[in-house]
Amino acid sequence: MSWAERINQARANNDWRPLIDAVPFARFQGLRIDVKGEEFTCILPFQEKLIGNPILPALHGGATGGFLECAGIFYLLWHMESQELPKTIDFSIDYLRSGRPKDTYANVVMVKQGQRVANLRIQAWQESPDKPIALGHGNFMLRG
């Protein structure tokens, strides 16, 4: 199945698993996407392999950062009509709290969308969106 067919099928069925499975890092993290109406949430289910500091224990910063970036990319695939993966131009992360060994959620806000570039703010949280564990800020090249 081609990438464009996977995207069309995901949009038509609201089943994003085939797209997630096609991205090795997203598949490794076991990401899930929950879309309810106009609300997009990306979910990072807790797995022991994502722990970076076993003393606390806390999620690895790379797992958190990769989750934020993937959430942004999948948001753009959901939100836009493009048939191609957006390309990350730059991405920065503000780590606000330690991610605990529990499921993590991400919400995405489109800050600005142009013809070729989208600017996103992605917030990762565990217990409440009012207590984010990390914020991502990214610029993504839009294709097609």
Name the descriptors:
alpha+beta, 29% helix, globular
Task: Quickly describe the structure.
The chain contains four helices and eight strands, in the order αααββββαββββ. The chain has 144 residues and is of the alpha+beta class.
Characterization of the model:
The chain is an alpha+beta fold. Helices cover 29% and strands 38% of the residues. It is built from four helices and eight strands, in the order αααββββαββββ. The strands form two sheets. It has a six-stranded antiparallel beta sheet, covered by helices on one side. A two-stranded antiparallel sheet has the order 3-4. Strand 6 (104-113) and strand 7 form a beta hairpin. The longest helix is centred in the middle third of the chain and has 19 residues, at 61-79. The model has no long low-confidence stretch (mean pLDDT 93).
Distance between the termini: 19 Å
Strand order of the largest sheet: 1-2-6-7-8-5
Number of helices: 4
Order of H and E elements: HHHEEEEHEEEE
Q: What number is the mean pLDDT?
A: 93
Beta content: 35-45%
Low-confidence parts lasting 5 or more residues at pLDDT below 50? none
- Described by the principal axes of the CA atoms, the overall outline is globular
Strand count, sense and closure of the main sheet?
6 strands, antiparallel
What is the strand tally? 8
Helix content: 25-40%
Q: C-alpha Rg, in Å?
A: 15 Å
Classify the secondary structure makeup into a structural class: alpha+beta
